[in-house]
Amino acid sequence: MSGGKITGTLKYYDDPTKALVQDWGEGYFIAVGFSNYSSGLTYEDAEVGITPTEGAGLVHLDSDQDAVFKVTDKTQRITAIQTDANGHKLQQFWSLADITYAPKEG
Predict the structure, then answer these.
(1) For residues 52 and 63, is the Cβ–Cβ distance under 8 A?
(2) 77 found inside a domain
(3) What is the pLDDT of residues 30-81, one digit of tens each?
(4) I want to staple 41 with a disulfide (CB 3.0 to 4.6 A). Which of 7, 45, 75, 95 is the partner?
(5) What range does the domain containing 56 cover?
(6) What pTM does this model have?
(7) For residues 36 and 65, what is the distance between their CA atoms, to the nearest angstrom?
(8) Which among 98, 106, 93 is positioned nearest to 10, based on CA atoms?
(9) How many domains does the chain have?
(10) Is there a domain that residue 106 lies in?
(11) Is residue 103 assigned to a domain?
């Protein structure tokens, strides 16, 4: 993640024994680690998601600070919103337009 863009190749997951596929169905997934917060804020002050979403919306990070998203369209973007004690919000977005989809195996 740099310059507001995420690059790389996404693998297609279709193994019905895997938790991601059991929970969200087969498809392309991306895992993102978050660690750079505004001064005085922590992962507990952050919500993350992929927008537009197909239902999950923004969710609070947990202590591992990692999130997995199902990518259905390159026009989606990763969204992070940090909220301070006064309710001020800092929004950040990362484009997925430059990702590559690996061919489906099989």
Answers:
(1) no
(2) yes
(3) 999 998 888 888 889 999 999 988 777 899 999 999 999 999 999 999 999 9
(4) 45
(5) 8-98
(6) 0.85
(7) 10
(8) 98
(9) 1
(10) no
(11) no
